Amino acid sequence: MKWSEKLNHYSVFIVSAIVVLAVVVWGVAAPEGMTSTMEAMMTMMIEQFGWFYVLATALFVGYCLFLGFGPYRHMKLGLKGEKPEYTYFTWLGMLFAAGMGVGLVFWGVGEPLSHFNDPPEGIEPGSQEAANYGLLYGIFHWGIHPWSIYAIVALGLAFAKFRKNLPGLISSAFYNVIGDQIYRWPGKTIDIIVIVATTIGIATSFGMSTLQVGSGLSHVFGIESGNMVYLMIITTVTFIFLLSAVTGLNKGMRYLSVSNLGLAGILLLAGVVLGPTIFIFEHLVRAFGQYTTSLPELSFMTTPYTDNEWMGDWTLFYWAWVISWSPFVGTFIARVSKGRSLQEFIIGVLFVPTVITILWFVTFGGTGLHLELNNDLGIAETTAETPEVGMFLVLEHLPGSLLLSIGALILITIFFITSANSATYVLGVFSSKGDLNPKSSTLIVWGLLISSIATVLLLSGGLEGLQATATITAFPFTFLMILLMYAIYKSLKREGLQKHKVKEKEDW
To answer: How many other β-carbons are positioned within 10 Å of the β-carbon of residue 10?
Structure first.
């Protein structure tokens, strides 16, 4: 292969690497300057285009419901008659590993108590109304909406890879719109945006998860957090997730995901039994009803008569952050969902995680609110300042607190490992021409790069700026997702009516 051909062949990787390296160098050399600049850009973007994120996210939810219960619901993410590769329980475990990870444990208490302490405008802080809205908004931010964003990316990639045998790249999902241009610079530009957003987002999450584990060690065992502890955490986690990555999805990732889902179930059951059980059951009924009835209003909620600050800090930031993460999570979900029907996929990806989210938030966030309303322990104020300790502050007031806290710490650590594992896999796919079974050597290289970037930025203080940078990439990708919906529909219409006669089920 000539030099010019090699340069063209690796152009996506080269350009992406240069952009990521430039951002990382900026974060190391001038972390405060990077943070202030990127956060100012992010704030401006959210203030000016917050309405667009709200509208787009609501559109994504409606589109997923149409796919799951509309005329194409029996079509497969794969060839006709193809069976799923994983059992339903294993599949759900993998979905949680990629889509929720440590965030559910982190914000299950952190967000309701933060909203209780600092609720939306017009609600009195520390009141029962603030507690009620704290849980409602927490469930809203972690329910159907983020999963619908992941689902669209996953569906676009799954149809392109499993039905058309195109490369496992996000650009392949646009084949029905731009044709062979996916192999040229229009497609390469899409892949560059995806790789940059994915690498920066993963490195940020890796660093933040390190801080969370460090906080847990400090709270449970009294180990003082510091750079040496963070380095030990990163080194240990890197070794474990690389070992899991090279053993493949069918071994390492599968066993970790299943064990994590089981441990989460045990912790959830313990929270219900040992916590304010009657309060939790009563609030579960209320939360299901309130979330269902409030969903249309919340989906289109904007604040044209206020300064948009609370919405910008929470809802709008969440939607931008989730969209920036969607290529990574969507690619992994596509890989593990081969053989599922559209309806089965939508139910498993949208509704099952939402139900578990409600159970988790009401159990642990509700317990925290109950403690605060009845005992005024100051948990909400502490959690609002350092949300990573919220879960441990709640657990220490339950019987068997030490055992529960250790269980939560193990859960966070395994979520950390599985998230890093899936992230390494996705980057391996992106840098292997879309091959859904990348080489072990490729996975090791990406794993070490992610760990190194996260370590450097964590020690230099550049993580916040990197997080803002990742969120900014959500703006162009939102337009790509809207175009992706059209590409998916075009593919479904053509194949469903012409090739498979959509009225005939594909699951036999």
So the answer is: 12
- In this prediction, residue 307 carries a pLDDT of 67
Q: Which of 148-152, 276-280, 452-456, 478-482 has the lowest mean pLDDT?
A: 452-456
3-state secondary structure of 218: helix
DSSP state of 180: G
Position 507 confidence tier, pLDDT thresholds 50, 70, 90: very low
d(CA 417, CA 260): 10
Query: Whose structure tokens read 């337009």?
Result: 479
- Say what the pLDDT of residue 249 is: 63
Phi, psi of 76 (to 5 degrees): -95, 150
- DSSP bridge pairs for 341: 76
How far apart (Å, rounded) are the C-alpha atoms in residues 415 and 212?
Answer: 11
Tokens representing residue 94 in the block: 């993998």
C-alpha to C-alpha distance for 480 and 472, rounded to whole angstroms: 14
Handedness of CA 235, 386, 380, 376 (dihedral sign): positive
Question: Rounded CA gap, 389 and 105, in Å?
Answer: 10
Distance CA 372, CA 336 (A): 41
Instruction: Tell me the DSSP string of 10-75.
Output: THHHHHHHHHHHHHHHHHHH-HHHHHHHHHHHHHHHHHHHHHHHHHHHHHHHHHHHHHHHSTTTT-
Amino acid at 474: A
Say if residue 253's pLDDT is above 80: no
CB 363 within 8 A of CB 139: no
Which residue is listed with tokens 């309130």? 290
Give the lowest-confidence range in 30-34, 57-61, 272-276, 331-335: 30-34
Over pLDDT 70: what percentage of the chain?
92
Identify whether the C-beta of residue 125 lies closer than 8 Å to the C-beta of residue 118. yes
Q: Could you tell me which of 111, 56, 414 has the C-alpha nearest to residue 257? A: 414
Angle, CA 121 vertex, CA 118 and CA 123 arms, to 5° = 70
**Per-residue confidence (pLDDT) for residue 5, from 0 to 100:** 47
Other CB atoms within 10 Å distance of the CB of residue 222: 7
